[in-house]
UniProtKB/TrEMBL annotation:
This is Ornithine cyclodeaminase. The lineage of its organism: Bacteria, Pseudomonadati, Pseudomonadota, Gammaproteobacteria, Alteromonadales. It comes from Psychromonas ingrahamii (strain DSM 17664 / CCUG 51855 / 37). Signal peptide: none annotated. GO terms for molecular function: ornithine cyclodeaminase activity; oxidoreductase activity. Pfam families: OCD_Mu_crystall (PF02423).
Length: 314
């Protein structure tokens, strides 16, 4: 059995290969039960957590397990640790143990970019990334892989962190103008694509800020009582998700409007597999506002891990 560490994952990955690999995997035959997320303490906003995400397709069986300990930072430890255990589909033999944290960065951004490929305007050129954490640069670079992005604005609660993310992007895409910004409302009103990867509990992006034709993408929240956008945006947009069963059990972006009685689970237009199979065309008009809400799926982990294993072991 191969053991693949984070440095090897980063060496093997690129969005030009990963995004089509995820699309192919979602379009194909697969199994993916609901992911199981467990709170290890009673305080749901700050509790330690543990999750298990299984999936399989014709190539492999995989299960990702991860821990999330929000208070680890001051201890000098990562807040999230993750591993993906893979087995051969044809025989069930152990195949590989892959670092899951690095895979998560790549596949999260790639799934968002794949959603944008279906849901943003083809001429979208201005991207706003909300969040200046570890995921931010991946999100920007992934979206710039599928759309002709010429301007990227980075917003974070710390302007210094936002500038560091901007510099990371400039180093890899010197052809794109990148700026750290402080006026979130103005940037949101200018953006063609808004991608949020934050720990916000209250809405950062308001529906009244978003212009017609904008595509919005929310990946940071996994809690039923927290959200990165407000109800107004959800009710005025066409809403898509990575997985209905996961999002409708975890994501406050949809669960809060449902509780308010202004949105229904039946209002979700399609999930990612339906988009990948062509069962829904995605964006219908140039003026349509779209929302893509993701909480993460085992199938995207499996697709990314399979790509890594194939590249490193063949």
């Amino acid at each position: 059995m191969h053991v693949i560490e984070a440095s090897e994952v980063h060496q093997a990955m690129n969005f030009e290969e990963l995004i089509p690999a995820i699309e192919e995997t979602f379009a194909g035959t697969h199994g993916m039960p609901q992911r199981n997320v467990f709170s290890l303490e009673e305080d749901s906003d700050h509790s330690d957590g543990f999750a298990v995400l299984p999936a399989w397709n014709s190539k492999a069986i995989g299960v990702k397990a991860f821990t999330h300990f929000p208070e680890n930072g001051p201890k000098g430890l990562d807040r999230l640790y993750s591993k993906i255990l893979m087995f051969k589909r044809e025989t069930g033999e152990p195949l590989a143990l892959v670092d899951g944290s690095s895979v998560t960065y790549w596949r999260t951004a790639a799934v968002s970019a794949l959603g944008s490929q279906y849901l943003s305007r083809k001429n979208a050129s201005r991207l706003l990334v909300c969040g200046a954490g570890n995921l931010a640069a991946y999100m920007a670079l992934a979206h710039a892989t599928v759309r002709p992005i010429t301007q990227i604005d980075i917003w974070g609660r710390s302007i210094d962190k936002a500038e560091k993310v901007a510099e990371q992007i400039r180093m890899q895409r010197p052809d794109i103008s990148v700026a750290a910004i402080t006026d979130l409302e103005h940037a949101a009103g200018q953006a063609d694509i808004i991608s949020c990867a934050t720990g916000a509990g209250e809405p950062l992006i308001l529906g009244e800020w978003v212009k017609p034709g904008t595509h919005t993408d929310f990946v940071g929240n996994h809690s039923p009582n927290r959200r990165e956008c407000d109800t107004d945006l959800i009710t005025k947009a066409s809403v898509f998700v990575d997985s209905r069963v996961n999002v409708l059990s975890e994501a406050g972006e949809l669960l809060i409007p449902i509780e308010e009685g202004v949105f229904s689970k039946d209002d979700v237009k399609a999930e990612l597999a339906e988009l990948a199979r062509g069962q829904h065309k995605g964006r219908q008009t140039e003026e349509e506002i779209t929302v893509f809400k993701t909480v993460g799926t085992a199938l995207s982990d499996l697709a990314a891990a399979c790509l890594v294993v194939e590249k490193l072991t063949n």
